[in-house]
Amino acid sequence: MRLSKFKRFIFLLILFIILLSIPFFSDIYYISFYYLGSICLITFSIYRIAWEEKKDKQFLKRWHNARKQGFKLNVFRESTKAFVLMTLSIIIIQFIVYGRTPVDIISKVSINLLIILLIILSMFSLIIGIVTWYENNKKYNRLYNKG
Known about the structure:
By secondary structure, the protein is mostly helical. It has 6 helices and no strands. Helix 1 runs antiparallel to helix 2 (about 30-50), helix 3 packs across helix 6 and helix 4 packs across helix 6 (about 110-145). The longest helix is centred in the last third of the chain and has 36 residues, at about 110-145.
């Protein structure tokens, strides 16, 4: 079940208000980066909602070609994307909220814990890659049969 554009914009507005109010309830180390990132995230989300039809057409063309490459390659590609995005998210959040650089994080974490974290991230990435394959196929079939 997909929400209408208006409902998605209202939901986005509520999330935007929550996102901008977080610094009033919690300490943020780099407040200006936090607000800049929040505004970029909201702007990107509005763009995605507003131009959804164009993105769906691009998706149909892109996924039609990607399906031909097979399950393993697509799962690997999506898993790698997920791994990089999760790692970058952790690094960015640690830097903006707590002021920790990647060097600080790695130097304070034991090698055993770092290996465990990498294994957990890899497992989540693999799961996300597999789920993305099936979700993209489902979306492709929905859009292909619709248009």
